Structure prediction request, 200 residues.
Amino acid sequence: MSLETLDQIDQRLFIWLNHGPKFWLLDQCMLLLSSPWMWVGCIPLFSVLAYRYLNKTQTIHFVSATLITIALADSIAFRILKTSLQRLRPCYALTPDVQLLATSCGSEYGMPSNHAANSMAIAVIIWMAARTEHTSPLCRWFRLGALGVATLVGFSRIYLGVHYPGDVVAGFALGACLAWLTWNGQKKVLQRYHTHLAKP
Prediction:
């Protein structure tokens, strides 16, 4: 299958999703999911996870891995991949076929989606942290909830008219890979650090 065919499929899928049923309450939910304030509202949940299930070392691991992963995902997506791939956002390329509900279309290029990359990065970090020696029902809900929210964030970008589904999927893949690499790389560093401290 050629890239041109994949691009056509992506455009058709975007039109189908973007032109789906809309009403005021759903519009506001999608705008909230794409807002930075949504993650600010999740801070209490992160605090509960850290306080209830993680010790001091695990909490440091969780917080630092989250910050590092977001910094990497945001920088790689925006400064490297978008400028290299140069794929126009649908709100620029498909006008007037786009139902644009976002306050603005954003930067010119959209592949991959920064929102999708960052949200999936956070979700995978939460998944890794919550599964560390914990199998309680609440931890399972934390893991599933984080992935669910990340998926909804990605869908909101299509719903609002600023990203193709392919942009979102690429962002998910980038965020997940960086989160996994950061978590496991940092875990090895911390293990070596503690082994070094334990030596007489």
About this structure: DSSP finds nine helices and no strands in the chain. Residues 3-198 form a domain with the Vanadium-containing Chloroperoxidase; domain 1 fold (CATH 1.20.144). The chain has one domain: 3-198. Residues 73 and 79 are 10 Å apart (CA to CA).
